[in-house]
């Protein structure tokens, strides 16, 4: 009984090895199928075009010549493309060109209503200076609006005496700093109080309080480079996009970051402030 059981165990072990071996190679592409079918001869996969055996006396045919593509099959050569400009032509191209040419401080520009690489560069310089986004060189409505306001600002309308005066032109929404009759900052862009009781009041004032970073209790926001001049109203760095004309401040004079820092470096307690004109729509 022990001998039979031993023989039986050995037979079972051989059978298991055989099955496992077959399973491991069942999906090898070069092996016959599990049903025992013969593998397909390699020669059978070559298409000769003849059903009988090859003629031993036949000579090997020459290799076929590579056909030359006809003119109709050749791909047309791409036409050389003109160099693409860095920015497209804007809806206010000629208008902006004329204003920037008159201002003359942002680079050369040609007044012809057509965009060029140099025009694009000059318009970009203007947009970057005044925080127009995107600064892509396209003369769009925001760029045109800012350019007209800068060009229309007349420093002579600010009642600046001797020494330093901060000037706020409400009509053109611009700010200047004038010292002894000479403009030392601006004109640059601002956004003042909006309609609904938040208008920035015109008048003559003086800076009476300054703080590098003031907290606004009513509006829960920091006001960088704060310079107060009347009834909770003062100069400070803008906390939103300054060219969003649909909104305004709650009376304060919003400035671009670089302008707010510059005005802060110039001012002190006692610096005169002249606010004049009226913001459109208020």
From TrEMBL:
Q: List the InterPro entries hit by this protein, alphabetically.
A: LD-transpeptidase (IPR050979), LD_TPept_cat_dom (IPR005490), Transpep_catalytic_dom (IPR038063)
The alphabetical list of record keywords is: Cell shape, Cell wall biogenesis/degradation, Peptidoglycan synthesis, Signal, Transferase
> Domain L,D-TPase catalytic, which positions?
164-276
Show which residues constitute the signal peptide.
1-26
Q: Read off the Pfam families from this record.
A: YkuD (PF03734)
* Record's GO cellular component terms: extracellular region
Give this protein's Gene Ontology molecular function annotations. Answer: peptidoglycan L,D-transpeptidase activity; transferase activity
- Pathway assigned in UniProt: Cell wall biogenesis; peptidoglycan biosynthesis
Which residues fall in a compositionally biased region of kind Pro residues? 53-67
Record carries keyword Transferase: yes
The UniProt annotation puts the region (Disordered) at 30-89
Q: Where is the active site?
A: 236, 252
Q: Which GO terms describe its biological process?
A: cell wall organization; peptidoglycan-protein cross-linking; regulation of cell shape
> What's the name of the protein?
L,D-transpeptidase-like protein
- Native organism is Asanoa ferruginea
The uppermost taxa in this organism's lineage are:
Bacteria, Bacillati, Actinomycetota, Actinomycetes, Micromonosporales
């Amino acid at each position: 009984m022990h001998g039979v059981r031993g023989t039986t165990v050995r037979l079972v072990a051989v059978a298991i090895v055989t099955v496992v071996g077959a399973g491991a190679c069942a999906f090898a592409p070069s092996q016959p199928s599990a049903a025992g079918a013969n593998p397909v001869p390699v020669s059978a996969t070559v298409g000769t075009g003849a059903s009988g055996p090859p003629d031993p006396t036949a000579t090997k045919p020459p290799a076929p010549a590579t056909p030359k593509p006809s003119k109709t099959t050749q791909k047309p050569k791409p036409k050389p493309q003109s160099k693409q400009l860095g920015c497209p032509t804007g809806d206010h191209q000629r208008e902006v060109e004329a204003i920037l040419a008159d201002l003359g401080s942002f680079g050369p520009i040609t007044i012809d209503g057509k965009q060029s690489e140099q025009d694009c560069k000059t318009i970009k310089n203007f947009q970057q200076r005044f925080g127009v986004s995107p600064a892509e060189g396209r003369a769009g409505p925001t760029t045109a609006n800012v350019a007209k306001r800068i060009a229309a600002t007349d420093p002579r309308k600010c009642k600046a005496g001797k020494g330093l005066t901060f000037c706020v032109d409400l009509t053109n929404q611009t700010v200047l700093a004038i010292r002894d009759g000479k403009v030392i900052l601006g004109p640059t862009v601002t956004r003042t109080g909006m309609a609904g009781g938040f208008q920035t009041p015109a008048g003559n004032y003086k800076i009476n309080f300054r703080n590098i970073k003031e907290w606004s209790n009513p509006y829960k926001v920091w006001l960088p480079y704060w310079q107060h001049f009347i009834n909770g109203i003062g100069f400070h760095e803008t906390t939103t996009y300054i060219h969003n004309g649909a909104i305004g401040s709650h009376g304060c004079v919003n400035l671009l970051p670089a302008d707010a820092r510059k005005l802060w470096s110039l001012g002190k307690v006692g610096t005169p402030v002249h606010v004049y004109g009226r913001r459109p729509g208020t």
